[in-house]
Design goal:
4-stranded antiparallel β-sheet; alpha/beta; 403 residues; 15% strand; homodimer; 8-stranded mixed β-sheet
């Protein structure tokens, strides 16, 4: 039968994600993939997870396998509230927490809750592909704002919002990844965090703060990476956290911290999206925090990833030809390359893949018809040797193309 | 700040689910809850799950904790395809499978893919509350069709669709739970399965077949409960399966079997909903099938649940006053009570809860302004003794009210 004739307007709007198509090519054996932003798989705390599961009493196991509530497992909610206050210095007054099936679900819920067709969302240029997909899925429009070395360009942000207002477009929220932005690796400076909040206040537009990497810093101090939400006493920042980089993405556990009434609405929406997040995963995440494994893991991973980052920065320095620029991330998983304007990253990709090196072209993280001379490199799940080899090969391709 | 002023039209449409409000009251200690449709928690295969996880090699554990693909873990997809062909007698020709985060996500994806505002969905009266919530969440309209003892009333179905057409309403699909409908316990007879498909063909409207309980039959033979999809060679049936009742709801793993192109679209939609379903859970489900644990569990649970059903039917027979009618489910978790027309189930609920007995009022499973004299009873997660005690108390309340 002709099912597509029955599709909704929103379904007809769905497009295949380029990154996923590219990553399929990157999955072949012997490929050095600097593509997906995977955590270092050699470091997953599998033994700790087995210890946790092995310690469960019969009653606890029964609860871990049973239906759960939509809001989340209460002891996990308590652990996260404590974490937000003590570790992230966020006041929970008037705020509440919803467990989500990864941060991707948080983005889907927020899109559904805020966006009517053609409503605008402010995103950084470049920004996380999964967020962009979620906003498009709710028929929203993307308004890009430039990043400089200190994060979002406050002047450009102000102009963009003012311009939207002038044109009668409704801006529903500002989406930002302040720490080690995916894909650029750029961090919002401490000074600009307050300024971002000031813009939000001036225009009365909430901020969605996506913070998957905040604990994984390799330079500076913890104070440099505390959330924008820390500065917010009016419930205008909606904070997204996740266990994907602090434990395992395979468990699919994230959380939203936001105004209590908003959380209640998001909870209602989540009921029809997936009823509740895996209780089994939530029990693991809860014990992982309670037992302090999370702290040991973070301490270890800061060292592991710092070495990888340094290896990639060193290799870029050693091998790259003139005319290529890159960011120096203070944490997270990614480095962003700017090629000379006439070089098409997709051409680079095709030639590199032939030589068994993969990455993601920058246009995946940008609105359509934006410049095509960017590349995202992930060092997070690669051995030091392969990072060096991968960059050497990529540099060779670029040298040939630049000529 | 005033967040609600920024909400989307769909958010303003969100309503709190009554069942969840009622179940909160049911969670107090010593309550005999016949409310939630929980699997028997004393029977969860926790030892098998520990054996499975304990058997994983280092490489397998790494993959189970890492990011996964949106479509699902390939060996699990293969196990399910095999299951659909051999156990469910479904032809997979032209059909494909998508792993979902429980069947609830399948319902959300299908709603999003098919429904524009005010599009109609045909549902049984009564029908699953999570499905109704998903359809409303996509701003769809519910068109109810009566059930008789043999399942959906084919004449009423035909009339309802014809009537929608006459009024210019677009009907996007027919949603049915043919085996032991939640909440009524009613099963679609073998004869009527073909007739349902004939209606779908006549009007060219697909069927969404939700089959969480199909393996859990206590009377008849396996042939009686094979899916409607088995009879379909045109890709008009979209089949939903889940591990929630065959392993654990806490793992959140379900699947959709449908036309290949439709599955590709659903996969795209799932990308922005939660990127992928827990790899950890999928690995457990895969090994659980591969090792044959699923068959042992099903065999055991048919006996466990049959005893519970028989206990509840026996108690109803023993204790209920004249004027109360109930269904006799051939499988699944639920019995549906029809009270005398003048009795309001919510009044019954309030009085029962005072005596520590909870259930769900039938209006939760029906369109607004439908009759209020129905009750759903779940026997699935209660000891035999408590089933007897619970029915005795409920019967006492009803006897007083009927007077």
């Amino acid at each position: 039968m002709d099912l597509p004739s029955l599709f909704s307007e929103s379904a007809l709007n769905l497009k295949s994600s380029k990154i996923r198509e590219l990553l399929k090519m990157a999955g072949v054996p012997d490929m050095i993939s600097m593509g997906g932003g995977n955590p270092d798989s050699a470091s997953f705390p599998f033994e700790e997870i087995k210890t946790i599961i092995g310690s469960w009493s019969y009653d606890r196991a029964k609860a871990a396998l049973q239906y759960g509530t939509t809001k989340g497992y209460v002891p996990l909610l308590e652990e996260i509230a404590d974490w937000m206050v003590k570790r992230k210095k966020v006041s929970m007054e008037g705020q509440d927490i919803l467990i989500t099936t990864g941060s991707q679900q948080a983005l889907a819920l927020l899109s559904k809750l805020f966006l009517n067709k053609d409503d605008a969302v402010i995103v950084e240029l470049p920004s996380f592909i999964g967020a962009i997909a979620a906003f498009y899925s709710s028929m929203g429009r993307i308004e890009g704002v430039r990043l400089d070395e200190e994060g979002i360009d406050i002047g450009d942000l102000d102009r963009t919002i003012a311009d939207c207002k002038k044109k009668g477009k409704t801006v529903k929220f500002i989406y930002t990844i302040p720490n080690f932005n995916n894909p650029s690796g750029i961090t919002l400076s401490r000074e600009k965090r307050q300024k971002l909040l000031d813009v939000s206040r001036r225009y009365d537009i909430p901020i969605v703060e996506d913070d998957p990497y905040g604990e994984l810093f390799y330079d500076g101090t913890v104070e440099d990476y505390l959330p924008v939400k820390r500065l917010d006493s009016e419930g205008r920042v909606i904070y997204l956290g996740t266990f994907s980089k602090l434990l395992s993405p395979g468990l699919r556990v994230g959380w939203i911290v936001a105004d209590g009434e908003l959380v209640a609405k998001l909870e209602l929406q989540k009921q029809s999206y997936d009823a509740f997040t895996s209780t089994f995963s939530q029990f693991i995440a809860c014990d992982y925090m309670k037992r302090g494994y999370i702290n040991t893991y973070i301490d270890k991973m800061r060292k592991v990833y710092r070495e990888k980052r340094d290896a990639m920065l060193g290799a870029l320095e050693r091998y790259m030809p003139e005319g290529i620029q890159w960011t120096t991330p203070k944490g997270g998983f990614f480095i962003w390359l700017t090629l000379p304007g006439e070089i098409d990253a997709e051409e680079v990709f095709k030639k590199s893949v032939e030589r068994k090196v993969a990455f993601v072209t920058g246009d995946a993280f940008l609105p359509e018809d934006y410049a095509r001379n960017y590349i995202r490199l992930a060092y997070s799940d690669l051995d030091i040797d392969r990072i060096d080899k991968g960059i050497e090969i990529l540099a060779g391709v670029l040298r040939e193309m630049i000529g």
